[in-house]
Amino acid sequence: METKFIEGRLPSSDGSKSIRVEFNERIVSITDIETASELPILSLGLIDTHMHGLDGFSVSAKADDLVSITEAAARYGVTRTIVSLVSSPLDEMIAVLQAASGVPQSSGLIGVHLEGPYLSESRCGAHAIGELRPAADSELEKVLQFDSLSSITIAPEQVTLEQTVGLAKRVLVAIGHTDADYELSLKYFGAGARILTHALNAMPRFESRSPGPLGAAIKADAYVEIIADGNHLHPATVVGLFAMTNKAILVTDSIAAAGLGDIELELGGVGVKVQSGVARRTDNQALAGSTLTLNQAVKNCVSWGLAEDVALAAASTRPANAYGLKNHQIKVGGTADLVLWDEFEPLEVYRDGRLIHGSTVN
User: Fold this and answer.
1) Domains of the chain by range and CATH?
2) What global pTM score does this model have?
3) What secondary structure letter does DSSP report for 171?
């Protein structure tokens, strides 16, 4: 691959500087430059680690659908994706994991997040109650055989501490969709869980004398997922969470309706209606994922008062750190996953040095 270059403004905690980045599949050189005009923002490619669908495509056992999701995500500045499967029968879980195993890494698909089925019925959210169940060792072993499994969300009510220790040795374990209090949640973070799934949604609140799973996650220095759409969390709550932890990760929890406007569809067999951009179950009006895109999450956070570099890090370097993508950095030798932005709308998006969204895709 020939060497290319882009120039942009790199936000940082002490302001910003303009740089020129030369790259092929990896970053070859980084040079500070002087410019008489304002350059577009330059950042790493965004990483969405919790999303169920986008632009009409849902996570399924078809490899083509999974690739279509990653291609759609590129239009929003996302270069790496972990797709999320809602609570499902074992055979469907295995089929999706098998399909993901056949998707080439060049697509940007990192792996699969199983959001359930080992979740609490009382905190099911958009998950079909009929699919929720306690974790059986035999079932866990069957899904753990797939390298495509990146993470799994569990409720302590449905998974034993011993099982959690075993899971944490193989994949990232997240706590979510649970009624667990602070003390119980802390035990599970101590057993190896490292992420809190969509903070303050489908879990007890953070209160003065009962800090709940969020308090446990902060105490355990775990990563904390945030859906910054203004519906799942109040904007002031989002800003407060960033002040409480330096391990905030922006996620979308998007469904296939994201990018399509108001529509009716199904999510894991549950009817969902999107109205004014908000997705809710048709039976009980509970929030059912989101129509958020990751660039919009960054844009929202900046509009709510967070610094550009802080919001971008929560959607790029921090999820990369959580999932062990050590070369996802703007440094010589780093993977050339780069985005140029205009008001957080992507102008050019590169994955492994190849232009995947912009004026000329090659």
Assistant:
1) 45-256+284-326 (3.20.20.140)
2) 0.96
3) S
